[in-house]
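Minutes, methods subgroup
Present: GH (chair), OT, SY

1. OT presented the first of two proteins processed in the latest run. Sequence and structure tokens recorded below as shown on screen.
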Amino acid sequence: MLRTEQRNPATTHLDQASTIEMLRLIQDANRRSVEAVDEALSQIARVVDAAAAAIAAGGRILYIGAGTSGRLAMQDAAECPPTYGVDPDTVVAIMAGGREAVFRAVEGVEDDAEAGSRDMLALKPSPNDLVLGISAAGGAAYVVAALRTARELGAITASLSSNPATAIEREADLPIVTDTGPEVVTGSTRMKAGNAQKMVLNMISTCAMVKTGKVRGNLMINLRPTNRKLRARMIKIVCDELGVDESRAITLLDAHDWALRPILDAV
């Protein structure tokens, strides 16, 4: 039996627990998510390097998942353009069931291998792309077929699961296994497994962007001023890095069409 499907002996009395006891059980389990990611760092590092190489070569990071895994991938991909100034096609996420499945569970779509292959073909993956398949259980037919198709077309493939020796791992050049173990609620992989997936996706996209020059020190130098908060952040970066006041920072940003990089590069 998959470890993510086993019963957790620490939570067999969950329905009898008080509120604070439930919270403590969940929080104790959350710590295992962090530990599992820590244990997988060497695997994650290989995927980060492949992701950075893909971006440097003009390729893409392509995430493909189902259910919670797909939704987490969608979130990570959506946040890359405003944070790092990359084109929306640089980090792309697709999930079983399409956009409808992002907001509402669509049953059975993760078992559709034909759809996985078809959706991957539509992306036209190339040897410059990194394709990361995400499935907590590791056996979603949609994700397995998508990875197999990407591999046949020459893309570098990676996998992220919470069980060892799974079908997606066999289709991956670079597998990642975050062994989070049995869930608080048996089989509910949106919990520990999902926590670990979120951390790993953050690591991959963040480190790939840093390694390809989208960050200076720990500052977002490709930031886009898409709302008040981000405009304020850009002003603060110019003030701090150039030692100027807010008025001068705004003048410089206006003169450079609110692009941070040319201002900081001139320092």
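2. SY then presented the second protein from the same run.
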Amino acid sequence: MLSTYRRIFDAPGSLAFSAAGFVSRMPLSMTGIGVVTMLSTLRGDYGLAGAVSATLALSAAALGPQVSRHVDRYGQARVILPATGIAVAAMGVLLLCARFDAPAWTLFAAAVPAGCMPSMGSLVRARWALIYRGSPSLHTAYAFESVVDEIVFIIGPILSVGLCTAVFPEAGPLAAILLLLTGVLLFAAQRGTEPPLHPVSLERSGSALRTPGLWVLVLTFVGVGTIFGSVDVVTVAFADHLHHKALSSVVLSVYALGSCVAGVVFGALKLHGPLSRRFLLGILTMAVSMLPLLFVKNLVALAAALFVAGLSISPTMVTTMGLVERIVPASKLTEGMTWTTTGLAVGVALGSSAAGWVVDGAGAAAGYWVTVAAGCFAAATAFLGSRRLRSAPEQQERAHVDDDQRQHQPG
């Protein structure tokens, strides 16, 4: 199994850009929870802290695809450096406003441009697609990056909260800023593996979201994100109800661990059959795996249920990115991948809010009904859109050929 993963790094420069991508993705799991911890500590207001964090998440969801669209058109390094500069400067202003007790509106004003940070996971996967397009190794590379995502979400929140509570309140978000800046600078320096530009195709057509089938993935991922957002909030509330709130991070790490284990195994498999069928099976499995959460009575049972539920996450994510690579023209690949993560981010915001309302009104355990409902929505969307996904690869294979032919035409 290890040799399968080792072989993907035989490509020159692959280890360097993947490692830089890991560093630059750490803020993805550190920023939101760091902002909540910082503001709740400095101002004692969880409502304000959650609202600012949600503003940051929604801003990233809105701005991320636009940044990625410019990446496809003008190149990774040329776009991510100024975008990161804007995000870092805005986060710096946010930290200063929090430290010096500026009016609440200044926190929201700073959070909006802070969402300009590039979708580094999409950029990393675009480089893997350039190296291994059409090869089984691309499946392994995507699986590896999915495992990296889970490691980020295991380490990041613990690191961010720990810094905020043990050092000073702004330490978690500050560390996230420094990691983002360092990772992006290292990533941008790897010019030899940067995907080529596709200016002809981009002038000829609009957003990647118009690609047949992509909206099915994005809408399904809104449901998947709602699962993630609700699980986070309800698990913390459930642990608090049992007077073990400090153990909630451990339980959530078990959830990520299940996904990590499944991703390692899934990436080493040699799979056959259409990606669309694999995607539908993954979403249905994810939805069904949420049902046991309605019946847990203690943290041990909850951890076991979440570990099992986590087993479907990485395989589904890997398959989704494989589908995006198949159905979206190469000239819009980064944008297409970012739209799926945008759907995920919107879902996380919705899930967190809905679960909070249910927990406040009906108790901690009732919050998992939001998780189950989100799973049903994701499964229904994937099922109803499965025909579109089955036909999309053939349509886009012709689009890839057309793009290549147009780019090689004289004059």
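Chair's summary of item 2: The domain at 14-197 is CATH 1.20.1250.20 (Growth Hormone; Chain: A;).
Next meeting: continue with the remaining queue.
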